[in-house]
Amino acid sequence: MQNRTENRVLAELPPADAALLAPCLHPVGVIPGPTQQPEFPSDCVYFPDEGQISALALTSDGETIEIASAGREGCLGPIFPSDLHDGLLVALGPLRAFQVPVARLQPILAQSEALSQALAACREALLLQVRQNLVCGGLHPVERRLPRWLIETADRLESDVIPATQETVAQRLGVRRTTVTLLASKLQEIGAIHWGRSRVEILDRARLESETCTCQRMLRARVSARPATQLTVARRTSFGT
User: Fold this and answer.
1) Residue 121: CA count within 13 A, CB half-sphere
2) Between the ranges 2-6, 90-94, 95-99, 121-125, where is the mean pLDDT highest?
3) Residue whose C-alpha is closest to residue 209's, from 131, 155, 132, 172
4) Rounded to 5 degrees, what are φ and ψ at 73?
5) Sign of the alpha-carbon dihedral angle for 220, 161, 69, 35
């Protein structure tokens, strides 16, 4: 590609396909304050180089819940026009990414089989993530969902330090901040995490994993059962590995 990238979907495109896409890619970056969650236009697809971008569902009274996320392992946004939604796309902490409007992406997909296959795999993996998050939010207590969110976010950031306040995490999980404060205290008591003013550090991953629900393992199993031609991109997009 003309621009160097740490995003694995972009970096693994064949040179000819990358050259088709390069003129449409626009770098974006933010370094928000500890309580800020910068929003991005929802008619673009984002390929993170650093950080995480998430799709949030929004209720009529302003409440939110995270439905899908991506780090440098994948992408997020309306890969196809039918994917457009009225929710929010927001960054978690510092973000560097490449942005491409979905309207400009469609003609390139018609010319690039490699890009079309890669984005179709990303889209399917994101849909798996959305479905599993729906099941998790409906059936599992927040005591299990919080550890799962911390582990999966750390995987996408490729860091044991997550730049997030308790208010931010509460908005991602669709619960009250006081609930997150109480659960964070319990996780700190068992030595799994340390939560400072605007960041949380995972101290004992095995201990934290023992507190999670089964959703991450189930999501891995579902991705592993998919056809081999789409498996690599899908696995990366689902878990950040």
Assistant:
1) 24
2) 95-99
3) 155
4) -75, -15
5) positive
The tokens describing 97, both together, are 């990414």
For the chain, the distance separating the N- and C-terminal CA atoms, rounded to the nearest angstrom, is: 22
pLDDT tens digits, one per residue of 8-23: 999 999 999 999 999 9
The pLDDT value given to residue 21: 95
pTM: 0.86
Tokens of 36: 């800020």
Q: How far apart are CA 177 and CA 180, in angstroms?
A: 5
Own/partner contacts of 203-212, CB < 8 Å, gap of 24 or more, are: 203/160, 205/151, 205/154, 205/160, 208/147, 208/150, 208/151, 209/147, 209/151, 211/143, 211/144, 211/147, 211/187, 212/144, 212/147, 212/148, 212/151
Radius of gyration of the chain (CA): 17
Going by C-alpha positions, the residue among 12, 136, 24 that lies closest to residue 72 is 12
Report which residue type is found at 219: L
Token pair 């969650």 is found at: 37
Phi and psi, residue 3, nearest 5°: -100, 135
